[in-house]
Amino acid sequence: MRICWAVFAGTVFSWAVSMGQSPTLFSLPVEQQFEGKRIAAVEYSPAGTLDAADIARVQPIKTGDLFNPDDVAKAIDGLFSTGSFEDIAVAAETAGNQVKLRFVTKAVWFVGGVTVEGKVAVPPNRGQIANASQLTLGAPFREDDIKAAVDSIKALMSANGLYEASVTPEINRENTAQQVFLSFQIEEGKRAKYEQPVITGEAPILSNSTILRATGWRIPVINWWRQVTDARTQKGVHALRGKYEAQDRLTAQVDLKSMDYDAAARRARPSLDIRPGPKIEIKAVEAKVSKKILKRYVPVYEEKALYTDLLVEGKRNLQDYFQSQGYYDVVVDFRELPPSQDKQIVEYAISRGSRYRLAGIVINGNKYFTESVIRERMFMTPAAFNLRHGRYSEAFRVKDEGSIKELYQSNGFQDVKVASTVDRNYQGKAEQVRVTINISEGPQWIVDSVTLNGFDRLSKTEFQQSLASGPGQPFAEVNLARDRSTILTSYFSHGFPSATMKAEWSASSTPQHVNVVYTVQEGQQQFVRDVVVSGLRTTRNGLVNKAITMKAGDPLSLVHETEIQKHLYDLGIFARVDTAIENPEGDTEHKYVLYNFEEANRYNLSIGLGAQVGRFGTPSTTSLSSPGGQTGFSPEASIDLSRLNFLGLGHAVTLRGLYSTIEKRASLSYLQPRFMNVEGRNLTYSILFDNTLNVRTFSSKREKASIQMSERFSKSLTGLFRFAFRRVSVSDVIIPVLLVPEFLQPVRIGILSANLSRDTRDNSGDPHRGSLNTLDIGLSTKYFGSERSFGRVLVRNATYYRLTGKVVLARQTQIGAIMPFSPPPGVPSDQSVPLPERFFGGGPDSLRAFAYNQAGPRDTGMPLVLGGPASQPTGFPLGGNALFFNNVELRFPFIGENIQGVLFHDMGNVFSSFSNMSFRFNQRNTQDFDYSVHAVGFGVRYRTPVGPIRLDFAYSINPPTYLGFGGTPEQLLSCNPSLPPSSLPSYCQSTRQTSGHFQFFFSIGQTF
C-alpha cells in the first residue's frame, strides 16, 4: 500500500496522481495506517539539493524512528525554511511491518550569472545592460523575472535612442548549486536622432533657437541632429536649466516629460516642460561682497530654491566667513523684497565692524596632553605669514571646544570641561584679540575589569588581547564602540553573520573606576558548502582557483569573501567580479559562495601626444657655440599596445613606442605576475631599442634584453633583481678627442643589478612625513659576457618632517659611484666606462644649479687615451663616475589652499671619480669640475588631482666656468692645438663660457 501527503503553496493534495500512480484510498485516517510503525528508510528525490548536515538539522525524521504525523509536518516546515524548495511532497509506503518515506521536492533555482551577447554600441555598455536586468547573483529565480528583465533592458536601450532594439533571453540551467545562467542576445538596430523639441509650460522667456543651442542636441552651423543617448539627453536638460540659472533664474524648472519616437523617420522628439520663474538677485548691502562669495556661502544657488531656511543658513555661513576674515563683530541679516517686474531681490545687510587680528591662542589646564597635540585638532589659527588675520569664528571656537572635549573623553576624562574666552584689546591694541582655552581635565576614569559573556565558540583569550578597554586602561565610550566593532568583525569573519553584542558598564567600588561587560549572542554559524565559479571564457580555471582561498567546509566569512573579490580585481584581467552567497535568506548552515566573472577587453591601445620645452642637450652638427644646451621645443608621440591575460594565464604582453626629436624608443615586454604563486613577486622579460639625444656631446643608442624579478617583501620594502644584456654605442660625436675607436665602437654590456627600496612616506606623490631609502648596485664583468668591467652603486635617502600643520621640511641625499676595473689596453681606467653608462646630472629632479644633464666634467681638450693627441677644448659635458646631490626644501602654504611655496637649496655635482669627490666651494680653474655647485631658489606648487604642477626658479651661486668653441664641427677639426695661438685662425681661439646663474624649470610632481 502507498499513501502520499503533499504540500504546495500551503495546500495539501495527493501527489500520487501527479506522479502517474494510482493511490490506494483508505477509510481510516492515514495516521492510523502508519502510526507507530518503524521507519525503514528516508529518501529524497532528487538527492543532493541540501547538504547532509542541513538535512539532519531541519528534518527530524531518522531511520529507525517510529512514524509520527507531527514529525512529518515538522520536516516539511523545516525543509521549506531552508528556502531551497518550491514544492515538497512526502510519499509513504509500507515495507513489510515498516514504513518507507520519500521526500519528493521541486528545487528553487538561483541566479548564477547574466551575460550580454551580440554587438553592443556604447552607450549603453554591457555592464549597464546586465545591471538593467535587475537579476541579482545568488537570488531566487522566478520565470516572471525574465519578462521584467527584458522590459527593463528595452527601456534602457530606448533611453539611448535604440528604439528598434530586440532582446532575446536564453536560459541555461546547471544542476550544480541549482543555478540559472541568463544570456540576453541584443540586436540594437540603428540609433534614433533628435527632433525639434516640443515646449510646454509657462512662457519660456528664451527663444526656441536659444533653447535648442543650450541643449546641444543639434550640431551648430551645419544643423545636423545628433544621435540620442541618455547621457546627452540629461546633459541637454541640465544645460538648459543652467542657461536659465545664468540669467539668475535660480528656481527655474526644466523637466523632460517624454521622448516621442517616429519609427518611419527614426526620430525622437523631446517634450520639455519649462517654468523659468522670476530672476532672483542676491546682493549684499552695507558691505562689498563678491558674487563668487555669495554663491559659495548662500545655499540658494546650490539647492535651486528660495526657502527661508536656506536664507537663514546663508546668514550663518556669511557670518562665519567674515569672522574668519577678522571681522569678529560682524552682524548679518537678510530681507526679501516684494517681487516686482519679474524679479525677486534678497538683500543681506552686513555690518562688518572693526577688523581684528587673532594674535594668539593660550591653552591652560592641560596636563595629560601637550599643547601641540591639542593644536592639531583645532580650526582656530593665530595670524601668520600666510594667514594675515588668523582664522577665527564663533563656529570655529565652539567646534574647537568640542574637539578638545572629545579628545579627553576618548582617553578616559569623562568629567572634562572645556571653555574659552576672547580677550579684546590684547597687548593694548584695539585690533588684536587673544583666545584663551581653559581645560578642567578632572579625574581619569579607569577600567577595573572586563567580563566576556556568551563567547562559546571563539576564544576569549584572543579577544582580550585586542580590546581597547582592558583592565587598567582609560575608560571611554568610544573604546566600547571600537571593541564592539572588533568583536563583531571577528565573528563575521568566522561565519556568524547574525552575531550581536551588547556592551554595558557599571561603577566599581573605587571612585572613577568601572567594570565592563560584553555580552555576545553568537547566532548560527555558517559554513562554505562549495565555491562555484562561472563566466570564465579565456582565463584558465587554475589561475582563479589559486586566488580563491576559501574552500568547502571553511567558516562562511563575508570579510574573506570580499578580500578574495578585491584580489581577483587586482589581477587586472576582469572587467567585473561579482560575488554573492546563494540563497542568503535561507535557514541553512552550509551555503554556496558564487563568483561570476566578466573578462576585460584583452587588447588595450593608448596614444599620447605631448611636448617638452627646455634647454636640451641635443647634439648639433652645425654649431659648437652652446655646450650648455639651447632652449628648444620637442614634440613627442607615444603609443602603447597591451595584450592582457595572455594564454589565459593572467600574463601581459606590451608593445611601447615613443618618438620625439630627442628620443626614439621601442620596447616589447612580457609580464608574468605572481611568479611561483607568490603575491607581489613579478617576473618581466623585455627587449628595448632606444636612441637618445639628451646629452649635448653625443647620441646614445641602446639595444637591450633583460629579465627582472620584482618582489614586495613587506608593505614598505620592495626589491628588484635584474640581469640585462645590452649593446651600447654612440654617434653624432663632435669632439675630436672622442673620435677614437675605443669610444666610437659599440660596446657589449652584461650587468647583474639589484635594487632595494624602503618607502614609509604618507603620500608618494606629495609626502609630508616618512622616508624613502633606495640602494641600487650592479656589476658588469666579462663573466656576464661584458666587454667592460665596472661596479655601480647608487644610494638615495630622503626624509620628510612636518614642522607645523602644513609646513614640511624635506631633504634628499644621493651618492653614487662607478668603479671600473680591467680596462682595455691603452684606455685609462677612469675612462673605460662607455659614455652612455656614465652618470649625468642636472635638471629639475636632481641638481637645479644646472640645466638638463649639464653637471660634471667637460671637454678641456686634454687627451683621453694615453699617448693620444690633445684637441681644442669645447666645454661639452662628458659625464662622470661619481655623483653627490643634496637637496633641501621648505614647503609651506603660499596662496590659498591649493598653492604651495618652496624655498630650496641644492648642492653637489657629478665628479670624474669617487676619489675626486669634493665639497669644495670654489672652482680652481677652467679645467676643474670636481667641486660642489650650490643653488638656491624659490618654487611654486599648484595642487592637482594628478600631482602638483611645479615651477622652480634657481640661482646658481658658483656655476662652473670653462673654455668653449664658437665655430662649426668642421672648423674644430681643422684646428691644431700644437701650433702657436698667433698662427691659428680666429675661430680656433677658445672662448670663456659659463653654465649660467639662472635656471628655470617647469614640470609635474614634487622634486623628490
Helices and strands, with pairings:
Layout: E1 2-8, E2 11-12, H1 15-18, H2 30-34, E3 39-45, H3 52-58, H4 69-81, E4 85-95, E5 98-107, E6 109-117, H5 126-132, E7 140-141, H6 144-159, E8 166-174, E9 179-187, E10 193-194, E11 198-201, H7 208-215, H8 230-246, E12 253-262, E13 267-275, E14 279-285, H9 291-297, H10 300-303, H11 308-324, E15 331-336, E16 343-351, E17 357-364, H12 371-375, H13 394-409, E18 417-424, E19 432-440, E20 446-453, H14 460-466, H15 477-493, E21 500-507, E22 513-521, E23 527-534, H16 541-547, H17 558-570, E24 574-581, E25 590-599, E26 603-616, E27 630-646, E28 651-660, E29 663-672, E30 681-695, E31 698-712, E32 717-731, H18 741-744, E33 747-759, E34 770-780, E35 789-802, E36 808-821, E37 882-895, E38 899-911, E39 933-942, E40 949-956, E41 961-964, H19 969-974, E42 991-994, E43 998-1004
Parallel strand pairs: 3-5, 6-9, 10-13, 11-13, 14-16, 17-19, 20-22, 23-25
Antiparallel strand pairs: 1-2, 1-4, 4-5, 6-7, 8-9, 12-13, 15-16, 18-19, 21-22, 24-25, 26-27, 27-28, 28-29, 29-30, 30-31, 31-32, 32-33, 33-34, 34-35, 35-36, 36-37, 37-38, 38-39, 39-40, 40-43, 41-42
